[in-house]
Fold:
Amino acid sequence: MSADHECCGVTRRRVLEGGAALAVLGSVRPGLAAEAMPQAPPISPTDPGISTMDVHLTVNGTAQSLSLDTRTTLLDALREHLGFTGTKKGCDHGQCGACTVLVEGRRINACLTLAAMHDGDHITTIEGLATGEQLHPMQAAFVHHDGYQCGYCTPGQIMSAVGMLDEAKRGFPSVVTADLKAHPELDDHEVRERMSGNICRCSAYPNIVAAIQDAKGAA
Ligand code: FES
Ligand code: FES
Structure:
């Protein structure tokens, strides 16, 4: 039987292609268990003992003003308050990298930082990476190299890769950089080390590395 056999007029390849576009753009994919995680009951800002703060963020170029419980993470502010669900909640403990966004151009785990700490900051999420219909080179490379399977880690992988290339361009070494005085050469070993904070439960690592190597000249 062909690997691309057809059922009811829909081929497996077509389904995978559709999923790929959603993964790299950060759109919500139906049926993902983690998306259906039970959420904590909403806390009213008027509840006694709740401290709120006005927080102003610029997200993907658009100014946003929020009144938030001061304990709200940047991840929850983006997902639950602003609807940027392309940024994923994997572990919520700084262990998986699914929540990676750029803050003032630097990659950061959005689950490990409070929104109130970023008042006035510029945030880039996966939804803000493309220019109109034109994918960012890193997004295009992930599609080209099949750098995903389920796609849940993919927005974080892509945002982390973009931030990582900028770090390397600025000359930041990693723990595997042999010559700390030379400009870092991003061989596969360096890329794997620098992306080690982004976990992929589907183990798409070889294709992720290939995508990053492909994109590094253009990103
Ligand atoms: Fe932030 Fe896993 S959700 S590191
Ligand atoms: Fe499934 Fe990475 S593609 S977790």
